[in-house]
């Protein structure tokens, strides 16, 4: 199996009012996190939600994914999972930090968004990737039970995966996706100043 990069540009259109309201609420909740929470969850760094929304909107508009099942690996406060749901995806998220899962559930409930969050690891049982450390922090946690059991789904059940890899762990994430995702599935990743990247899992070797 191999990954190929898919050339695409995020959709260029105004952010819809409902999405804008969700993002404003999410920012308020982010600002309200106390210092202790920020220290205890150092790997929680939100992405550019507007950029990711426009990328998801383009994928949806062009029907680039083979189906409508979406999962966010490391879903944090659940914002991207909620955005995917608003775009018509059957969206779920897996997050290892219980406090963030609680915030995600509150956010979705208050905005009447139909999503599901599982508290656990997005790494399936038996998958132990090589983990790089940056500044003493490993974004890709190998601790915790698999989050798929609570969802009643497997990693290869999804058509589109989103993740924000910690610096230095991009290739680790790509390797995990290549190992566990379904053939034809898409991986959308956010890379800070580099923006978003889109890859598809294909058969063959290159």
Give keywords.
Rossmann fold, 7-stranded mixed β-sheet, 7 helices, 7 strands
Fold and architecture overview:
It is a single chain. The chain has 206 residues and is of the alpha/beta class. The protein has seven helices and seven strands. It has helices at residues 17-32, 35-40, 49-61, 79-86, 98-110, 148-151, 170-180, and strands at residues 2-5, 69-73, 90-95, 116-119, 160-163, 186-190, 196-202. Strands 1-7-6-5-2-3-4 form a seven-stranded mixed sheet, with helices on both faces. The model is unreliable at 133-139 (pLDDT under 50).
Helix and strand arrangement:
Layout: E1 2-5, H1 17-32, H2 35-40, H3 49-61, E2 69-73, H4 79-86, E3 90-95, H5 98-110, E4 116-119, H6 148-151, E5 160-163, H7 170-180, E6 186-190, E7 196-202
Parallel strand pairs: 2-3, 2-5, 3-4, 5-6
Antiparallel strand pairs: 1-7, 6-7
Helix pairs in contact: 3-4
Give me the CATH fold name: Rossmann fold
Terminal Cα span: 9 Å
Task: Give, in order, the helices and strands.
Answer: EHHHEHEHEHEHEE
Number of DSSP-assigned strands: 7
Largest sheet: 7 strands, mixed
Percent of residues in helical segments?
A: 25-40%
Which homologous superfamily in CATH is the superfamily?
A: Vaccinia Virus protein VP39
**Shape assignment:** globular
Compute the number of helices: 7
Q: In the CATH hierarchy, what is the class?
A: Alpha Beta
Q: What is the average per-residue confidence, as pLDDT, rounded to a whole number?
A: 88
Largest sheet: spatial strand order: 1-7-6-5-2-3-4
Rg of Cα set = 16 Å
Beta-strand content estimate? 15-25%
> What is the CATH architecture annotation?
3-Layer(aba) Sandwich
Low-confidence parts, pLDDT < 50 over ≥5 residues? 133-139
Task: Assign the structural class, choosing from mainly alpha, mainly beta, alpha/beta, alpha+beta, or little secondary structure.
Answer: alpha/beta
């Amino acid at each position: 199996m191999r990954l190929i990069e898919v050339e695409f540009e995020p959709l260029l259109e105004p952010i819809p009012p409902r999405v804008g309201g969700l993002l404003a609420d999410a920012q308020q909740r982010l600002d309200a996190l106390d210092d202790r929470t920020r220290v205890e969850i150092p790997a929680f760094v939100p992405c550019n939600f507007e950029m990711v929304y426009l990328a998801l909107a383009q994928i949806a508009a062009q029907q680039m994914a083979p189906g409508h099942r979406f999962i966010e690996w490391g879903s944090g406060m659940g914002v991207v999972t909620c955005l995917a749901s608003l775009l018509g995806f059957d969206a779920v998220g897996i997050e290892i930090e219980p406090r963030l899962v609680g915030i995600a559930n509150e956010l979705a409930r208050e905005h009447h968004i139909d999503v599901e969050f599982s508290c656990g690891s997005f790494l399936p049982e038996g998958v132990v990737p090589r983990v790089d450390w940056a500044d003493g922090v490993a974004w890709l946690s190998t601790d915790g039970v698999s989050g798929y059991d609570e969802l009643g789904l497997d990693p290869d059940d999804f058509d589109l995966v989103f993740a924000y890899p910690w610096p230095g762990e991009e290739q680790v994430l790509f390797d995990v996706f290549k190992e566990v995702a379904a053939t034809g599935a898409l991986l959308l990743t956010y890379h800070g100043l580099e923006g978003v990247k889109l890859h598809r899992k294909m058969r063959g070797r290159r």
